[in-house]
Amino acid sequence: MDDAAHADRVDRLQLIRSANIGPVSYARLLKSHGSASSALKALPELARRGGPRAPRIADRQSVLDEMAMVAKLGAQYLFRDDPAYPVLLSELDDAPPVLICRGDLSLLERPTVAIVGARNASAASCRFARDLANDLGQKGVAVVSGLARGIDTAAHDGSINQGTIGVIAGGTDIYFPPENQKLQEAIADRGLLLSEQPPGTEPRARHFPYRNRIIAGLARGTVVVEAAPKSGSLITARLAGEAGRQVMAIPGSPIDPRSRGCNSLIRDGAVLIQCAEDVMELVRPFDERIEEARQSLHVKTPARSNDKGEPVRVPAVAKGDRHTVEALLSSTPVAIDELVRQTRMPLSDLQLALLELELSGRLTRSAGARVSLAPLN
């Protein structure tokens, strides 16, 4: 890698690690400014428009230290526009700008199916998940899950010898749950371990929904084996459905709380599956969709760039329009499409207003293109 390419990767990582920069705002800043370097120069002005707080741009030395730690762990960065970045994941509006990977990146080229479920799963369901993962692996499928206790662990155990992908909520050097340390290392050695968080990050409750959207985004379909109502597995299933992927579930006894989530999914339209061939029948049609997506990735639109060192000037939305948008927001997430309907603003102006609010810490983005007002500290 030449010096210019290395400097650009440092700039990108510095932008990603800066305060209030999420996947959507990162992608919009890169598109509008053409480079991470130009976007970093534009941040102060953009944030001032949205509120009084200036953005906390990540310290460049801390970014270099992170990169050194990633290399020491035997991991590597996979940026969203890298050729090896998974095609289906890149379709998400909030796809991770960068992943930290340990293991075999070629697994990302395989058909991928997610298997998720309850942490306190029954022995019978763990056996089913393990056998299903093994059977899918024998058919050339990479099985992705979240390395949690119960069904996730069973899915990884069943596919470890054929191809398994573990997505974790913390850094790749943090083991959670602690009893899965050996399994996590085995996945890094014989499969693929993925994380959105930098090394040393302890997993927090807020990290798990972000992990779940990666699991759902990687896969052609998600199989839920056991799940209680309002569980994280149902969040993954919902995100899979919103992304246009197959949602599959294993039925269970109506008197077992661990089966209620799956039974509810089937009632609401998820496909009941009983074996690996059922799954394969549902995910095979994605071959054509993935090939079309790969072709579209080769068509790039030139973006504006300003790397001359001077402050970057960017178009601003009218102050009244920004106040109108903020007045419509509350602590309850609302779809951006609904804001378009109510404000009647051009989508580009609305997106810029949301970006300015986000950079100033006034906006929180949720899955499914929803936004809400951030709580005041």
Keywords:
Rossmann fold; three-stranded antiparallel beta sheet; 377 residues; Arc Repressor Mutant, subunit A; nine-stranded mixed beta sheet; 47% helix
Q: Which structural category do the helix and sheet elements fall into?
A: alpha/beta
Low-confidence stretches: 299-312
How many β-strands, per DSSP? 12
CATH architecture designation of the largest domain: 3-Layer(aba) Sandwich
What oligomerization state is this entry in?
single chain
Helix content: 40-55%
* Euclidean distance between termini CA atoms: 42 Å
Under CATH, the topology of the largest domain can be stated as Rossmann fold
Number of helices: 16
Radius of gyration: 21 Å
Strand content: 5-15%
Q: What is the helix/strand order? A: HHHHEHEEHEHEHEHEHEHEHHHEHHEE
Q: Please describe the biggest sheet, giving its number of strands, its sense, and whether it closes into a barrel.
A: 9 strands, mixed
